[in-house]
Amino acid sequence: MHSPKRSAYPSLAPMHTQTWRVESQASYILALAERVNVHPSRLLTVGIFEGSRGTESEFYLRAKFNVGGGQEEFITRRLEALTGRSDIRLTTLYGRGIVVPVYRLTRPTRAWCPLCLDDAQSSGRVYEHLLWSLTFVRCCPTHNVCLENRCPDCGRAVPYVSWKGRPGQCPKCFAWLGSGGRILDSPAPTEWEAWLAIQGVDLIEGAVARPALVQARVQWLVTYVCETLFQGSRKAFAKSSPFSPGQVSEWLSGRRVPSLESLLRLTRLSGLTLSQALWAEAIDPVLQLEMFPKPAARPRHTFPRQQILDRLQQYLAEANQPTLSQFAALCNTDRRLIHKHLPLVRLSVERARRAALLSQSHSTWKREVAELMDAVDDLLAVGVYPSRRLVAERLTSPGRLRDPALISVWKSLLLDRGVTPVGVRRHTPTPMASAAHEPVTRVLAAR
Predict the structure, then answer these.
(1) pLDDT at position 87
(2) Confidence class of residue 3 from pLDDT cuts 50, 70 and 90?
């Protein structure tokens, strides 16, 4: 005959369920196993999984303790059925209404404050806080010391639940994880770490009886910061914060959720606490308006169509015609808007610009030809052959005589004055070659 299964477990109450010092689920499992004098793994396999083998019995090895929800909720329900208590779910984040859609909200291994463990040992039952399982909490808000995550004796990481685990003890070397009179050599917490610890306290303490968080709340937080502090400008938001414009756009559209570090920086940037930012629906509507003032409406940008048309006549009458970009800057608008909404204005500005450049080119050409004629006549007057080098030295821009068109004018000037240019090949003139030897007046007229 088989003996009946043991179902009488002590109704062990979790510690401080209504405060931020609430005991974690992993610590409660270790304390319950110590009370019934069994190993924690024995409690899980026999008491919770009822001796089943395979995947379910070994699920605790990879279960996310202290989180709750999903498959981990099965452990919470079984603990409540075995102990006859309904407040064990408050030892998990999900049971307290904390459903933050971010990755790595909790640590993979245990972390603790040595001074808090010493205080718990002197006051009664040793337990570990749910606050310590949050990834962003790096220091103790009570003693203002950094949390430890490795055994001070063997230096190993401590898992949440192991075969011989006990609250406040290392399951490998059984060393006490508290200070034990030793001097803590960890550096003092920074201002950012102290603020993170305060946000963790506010999150744990203010989450009781609050509605579960949905993904839209994080999107609302990003929208609130962007609209309130930066008047809805995503570019200014990304420029004044450590976030890229692509991240801000994905957060505002809801395609992605900020990481845990980004969510905390957004909370600090908004000037709110983490609990206020995540549970704004639970606040009274009157108080919510005072806490979250509605930003002023952004002024609507109007296209200055009439202003552009008025200034068009003014700039077309000027000698130095501006480019389309310069004209748009003078009208306090963008070149692409003129290109899209006023195509006729764009054509007028571009045609006037081309005509101004062509007129400037003609005047420059006439001035250079006049300088070339004067230089050739001056050299012939003193009986010096007007070579290209000597003529170029008398020009305002000597390098311009390298232009093939000016070289043709120089040769034509020499031929008109009965001087044979040095280096000119003698061959039967062709229509194209004879055109290059026409008088300078015809060349100027052709240009």
Answers:
(1) 86
(2) very low
Structure tokens at 88: 């064990």
Q: Which of 70, 76, 99 is nearest to 88 (CA)?
A: 76
Q: Is 6 exposed, middle or buried, given 0-12, 13-18 or 19+ CB atoms closer than 10 A?
A: exposed
Buried b (16+ CB within 10 A) or exposed e, 347-364: ebbeebbeebeeeeeeee
CA 298 vs. chain centroid, Å, equals 24
Give the three-class secondary structure for 134.
strand
Supply the pLDDT for residue 152: 87
Concatenate the DSSP letters of all residues of 251-316 into one string: HHHTSS---HHHHHHHHHHHT--HHHHH-GGGS-HHHHHHHSPPPPPPPPP---HHHHHHHHHHHH
Where residue 94 falls among pLDDT bands split at 50, 70, 90?
confident
What end-to-end distance do the CA atoms of the chain give, in Å?
Answer: 121
Distance of alpha carbon 194 from the chain centroid: 24
- Lowest model confidence (mean pLDDT) among 111-115, 169-173, 269-273, 373-377: 269-273
pLDDT value of position 289: 34
Q: What is the DSSP letter of 142?
A: T
Q: Say which residue the tokens 């930003």 belong to.
A: 295
146: β partners: 139
What mean pLDDT is predicted for residues 425-438? 41
CA–CA gap between residue 166 and residue 126 (Å, rounded)? 9
* Residue-level pLDDT at 172: 87
Which residue has 């989180």 as its token pair?
Answer: 67
Gap between the Cα atoms of 35 and 374, Å rounded: 116
In the three-class reduction of DSSP (H, G, I as helix; E, B as strand; rest coil), residue 214 is classed as coil
Q: Give the number of other Cβ atoms within 10 Å of residue 430's Cβ.
A: 9
What pLDDT sits at residue 350?
A: 83
pLDDT at 447: 45
Strand partners, 106: 134
The band of 140, judged by pLDDT with boundaries at 50, 70 and 90, is: very high
User: Both tokens of residue 226?
Assistant: 């962007």
CA distances from 247 to 106, 238, 255 (A): 23, 8, 10
**What's the pLDDT score for residue 122?**
87
CB atoms near residue 125 (< 10 Å):
16
Query: In what helix (H) or strand (E) does residue 73 lie, and over which residues does it extend?
Result: helix 73-83
CB contact set of 32 (below 8 Å; sequence gap of 6+): 9, 10, 12, 43, 79, 83
Q: How far is CA 290 from the centre of its chain?
A: 29
**The tokens of 374 are what?**
């004067």
